[in-house]
Write a structure and sequence with these properties.
Elements (H helix, E strand, L loop, with lengths): L4 H12 L5 H11 L11 H25 L2 H7 L3 H13 L3 H10 L6 H18 L1 H10 L5 H15 L1 H8 L4 H14 L5 H10 L6 H11 L5 H10 L8 H15 L3 H8 L3 H13 L6 H11 L9 H10 L1 H9 L4 H18 L1 H7 L5 H18 L1 H8 L4 H18 L1 H10 L7 H15 L1 H9 L10 H11 L3 H7 L9 H14 L3 H7 L5 H18 L1 H8 L5 H12 L7 H11 L18
Helix pairs in contact: 5-7, 6-7, 7-8, 7-9, 8-9, 9-10, 9-11, 13-15, 14-15, 15-17, 16-17, 17-18, 18-19, 19-20, 19-21, 20-21, 21-22, 21-23, 22-23, 23-24, 23-25, 24-25, 25-26, 25-27, 26-27, 27-28, 27-29, 28-29, 29-30, 29-31, 31-32, 31-33, 33-34, 33-35, 34-35, 35-36
Length: about 600
C-alpha cells in the first residue's frame, strides 16, 4: 500500500476522545484510530460500515507492516502511549505466530529501552497464547535484567491454558526463575486449592514456601475482604510471630475499611501474647502525630492484653507536641508500676525536645524519673550552649553531678576542647573529679595536639591509686597508631604506678612490629626493679598476641635472662606451639611440664 500507516494513526488520535462508551472503546477504538475525523457521521449504519471498512484496512496494514518491516517503527513515532498500545494490541489480535515473531524481531531496533520493553512484553504475551513453549525460548533469550518480567507474562498465559505442561517446563529453569514462576502461578491461579498449590511449590523445589506465598496473596487482596484475609493468616500453619508484618498489613487494611475500633477485635483474635503486643505496638505507632492522644487511649484499653511497650510510640509524639498533656495523661494511670514507667518515658522525651522546660518542671516527676531526664536535658543543652549546660549542672544533686559532667565534657570537647579543659580546671562544681573529666576529653586533645595534652598531664599531680594522665596520653596515641609520637613522649612519663604500664604499651607494639631490639632496649630507661617487671610484661603480651613470632625471635636474644623470660612466657601458651617447640621451651625453662605458675609481678593490662 502507498499510504503509510503512521500518517493514518496520527490523524485518528483526535477522534479517540469522541468515543463515548466502554463497548465502543473495546470494539471500535483501535479500529477507528486509522480513520480521519471527517470520516465520522451520526448515522449508525455509516458508523457500522466505517468500522467494517477500518477492520479490513487495519488487517491489510498489519500484513503490510509485518511484511514490510515498518509497523514497530511507525508505532514508535506515535506521541500517544494509549494509542500506541491500543493499536499494537489490535494488531496482535490479528497476528499469527509468524507475525508475532517478526514483530518481536522488529523491536530490537527501538532505541528507547523502556518503550522497547513495553512493546516486547505485549508481543511475548501474544506469542505465549499461541505457542507458550516457543514464547519461553524467546523470553530466555531476551536481556537478563528483564527476563523475569517476560517469564511472568509467559506463565500467566501458560498456567491457565495448560498448567501441567507449564510446570514441566518451569522445572527446567534456574532457582530464582522457578521462584518467580511459582509466584506468578499463585497469583494467577487463585482457583487452586491450598493442597494443589503446596504440591506445585514442592515440585518446583520450594515446598516450604507454599504457605508464605499464599500469605503474600492474602495481604495483597486484603483491601477486598480484610477480615477474611486476617482469619486465613491466623489459621495457617506458620507461627504467628513470624507473620507479624503480614498481620500488620492486613490489619491496616481492616482499620481503613472499618475504623480504628477494629483494634479490639484484632487484639482478641491473636492468641500469642508476644505477637499480639508486637502487632498492636506497630499499628498504634502508625497513627499520625496529631492522633497521639487517641493512640494513647487505645493503648490504655489494650494494656491488659499486651504490655507497656504499646504506649511508647504515642507518648513519643504526644510529648513532643504537648508534654504537659502527655504528663497529665500518664499521671492518671492506675497501675503504679506502669505509671512510673510512663512518667519516666515522658520525662526522657521532654528532656530531648525542650530540655529547659523539663528542668523547670522536673520536681513534678517521681525521683526515679528525674535522674536520667536531667542527664538527657543537660546533654541536649550542651549540644547548643555548653556554658548554659554548666549552669544547669550546678543545680544537680551532688550524687548526679559527676556522670552528667562527664557527658557534658565529652560533648563540649567535640566543639572546643580548649574551652572544656579551661572549664574543668576552674569550675568548683567539678573540682573533686577533674582528672576523670580530663580523661573524657583527652582523646580529642591528644588527636589534635599531643604535646599540649602531655603538658597538661604533667601539670596534674600523680595519684598513686590512678593511672596517670601521661599514661592516658600514651595509651591514646597507641590506639590511634601514632607509635612514633608515643615513643617520643614516653621518657616524660613520671615514675609512679602507671609508668611501667606506659612503657609496656609502647614496648609491646615495638615487638609486635618486629622492632625487637628497640623494644628490649626501651626498658633500660627504667630502674632495675621496674625494668624486670617491664620485660616480663612485654614477653607475656608478646606470647599472647604472637607466640610464633616470639618463639622465632627467642634464640636470637643475646641475653640469657631475657631468653629465659621469653621461654617462660611461651610456657603459658603451649597450645600455640608444636611438639618440638614445646620441648625446646621446656629445656630453656628447666620445667618438666608447661603451664607451671608463671612468675609474679607481671602487668596484665592489654595494649
Amino acid at each position: 500500500m502507498s499510504v503509510h500507516i503512521l500518517q493514518r494513526l496520527k490523524s485518528a488520535i483526535p477522534a479517540l476522545a469522541g468515543v463515548a462508551t466502554a463497548c465502543v472503546l473495546s470494539v471500535g477504538l483501535a479500529l477507528t484510530v486509522l480513520q480521519r475525523p471527517s470520516d465520522f457521521d451520526s448515522s449508525s449504519s455509516t458508523n457500522s460500515a466505517a468500522t467494517s471498512q477500518s477492520q479490513f484496512a487495519l488487517e491489510d496494514h498489519a500484513e503490510e507492516a509485518v511484511d514490510g518491516n515498518t509497523l514497530v517503527a511507525d508505532l514508535v513515532e506515535l506521541e500517544s502511549e494509549y494509542a500506541r498500545i491500543v493499536t499494537l494490541r489490535q494488531m496482535l489480535a490479528n497476528t499469527n505466530k509468524k507475525g508475532a515473531l517478526e514483530l518481536l524481531d522488529q523491536t530490537v531496533a527501538v532505541a528507547q529501552p523502556k518503550l522497547r520493553l513495553r512493546l516486547q512484553v505485549q508481543i511475548v504475551q501474544k506469542l505465549a497464547s499461541i505457542d507458550p513453549a516457543m514464547a519461553l525460548d524467546h523470553a530466555q533469550n531476551l536481556p537478563m535484567q528483564h527476563r523475569n518480567q517476560f517469564l511472568e507474562v509467559v506463565f500467566e498465559e501458560w498456567s491457565v491454558s495448560a498448567l501441567d505442561e507449564a510446570l514441566s517446563h518451569a522445572a527446567t529453569l534456574e532457582n530464582k526463575e522457578r521462584l518467580g514462576v511459582l509466584r506468578t502461578i499463585f497469583r494467577t491461579r487463585e482457583d487452586l486449592s491450598t493442597t494443589r498449590l503446596s504440591q506445585i511449590a514442592h515440585d518446583l523445589g520450594y515446598g516450604g514456601m507454599a504457605t508464605r506465598l499464599k500469605e503474600d496473596l492474602l495481604v495483597k487482596s486484603a483491601s477486598r475482604n480484610p477480615e477474611d484475609s486476617w482469619n486465613q493468616i491466623l489459621e495457617d500453619p506458620w507461627r504467628d510471630y513470624s507473620q507479624v508484618m503480614s498481620l500488620v498489613d492486613v490489619a491496616d487494611a481492616w482499620i481503613k475499611a472499618e475504623g480504628r475500633d477494629v483494634l479490639y477485635q484484632i487484639a482478641e483474635s491473636i492468641p500469642n501474647h508476644r505477637t499480639r503486643t508486637q502487632v498492636i505496638r506497630i499499628l498504634l505507632g502508625q497513627f499520625p502525630a496529631q492522633d497521639a492522644p487517641e493512640a494513647f487511649d487505645y493503648a490504655r484499653s489494650l494494656y491488659d492484653q499486651t504490655d507497656d511497650s504499646i504506649f511508647r510510640a504515642s507518648l513519643f509524639w504526644w510529648t513532643a507536641n504537648d508534654p504537659y498533656s502527655a504528663f497529665e495523661a500518664v499521671t492518671e494511670l492506675e497501675d503504679k508500676a506502669l505509671r512510673l514507667k510512663m512518667q519516666t518515658t515522658v520525662a526522657d522525651r521532654w528532656a530531648q525536645v525542650d530540655p529547659l522546660a523539663l528542668l523547670q518542671n522536673i520536681a513534678d516527676f517521681p525521683t526515679k524519673a528525674q535522674v536520667n531526664a536531667r542527664r538527657i536535658a543537660i546533654g541536649e543543652i550542651a549540644n547548643t550552649s555548653p556554658r548554659n549546660a554548666t549552669k544547669a549542672l550546678a543545680q544537680l544533686p551532688s550524687d548526679e553531678t559527676k556522670s552528667v559532667a562527664e557527658q557534658l565534657a565529652y560533648r563540649w570537647a567535640m566543639k572546643n576542647v580548649q574551652e572544656v579543659v579551661d572549664w574543668i580546671q576552674t569550675d568548683p562544681t567539678v573540682h573533686d573529679y577533674q582528672d576523670d573529666l580530663l580523661v573524657e576529653v583527652f582523646r580529642v586533645l591528644v588527636r589534635t595536639d599531643s604535646e599540649a595534652a602531655m603538658k597538661l598531664a604533667l601539670n596534674r599531680p600523680v595519684r598513686s591509686s590512678y593511672r596517670s594522665l601521661e599514661y592516658q596520653v600514651v595509651r591514646l596515641l597507641i590506639s590511634e597508631n601514632k607509635f612514633e609520637e608515643s615513643l617520643a613522649l614516653l621518657p616524660r612519663v613520671r615514675e609512679g604506678s602507671s609508668q611501667v604500664e606506659a612503657f609496656y604499651l609502647v614496648g609491646l607494639n615495638l615487638a609486635l612490629n618486629k622492632n625487637i631490639n628497640q623494644a628490649l632496649e626501651l626498658g633500660e630507661q627504667l630502674s632495675a626493679s621496674r625494668r624486670d617487671i617491664y620485660l616480663r610484661s612485654v614477653m607475656r603480651g608478646w606470647a599472647f598476641n604472637d607466640a610464633q613470632g616470639l618463639y622465632l625471635s627467642m634464640d636470637n636474644m643475646s641475653d640469657w635472662e631475657t631468653k629465659r623470660l621469653a621461654a617462660n612466657a611461651l610456657a603459658e601458651y603451649p597450645e600455640t606451639l608444636n611438639k618440638d617447640q614445646r620441648e625446646h621451651v621446656k629445656t630453656l625453662t628447666g620445667r618438666d611440664s608447661l603451664h607451671d605458675d608463671f612468675e609474679t609481678m607481671v602487668i596484665t593490662s592489654s595494649p
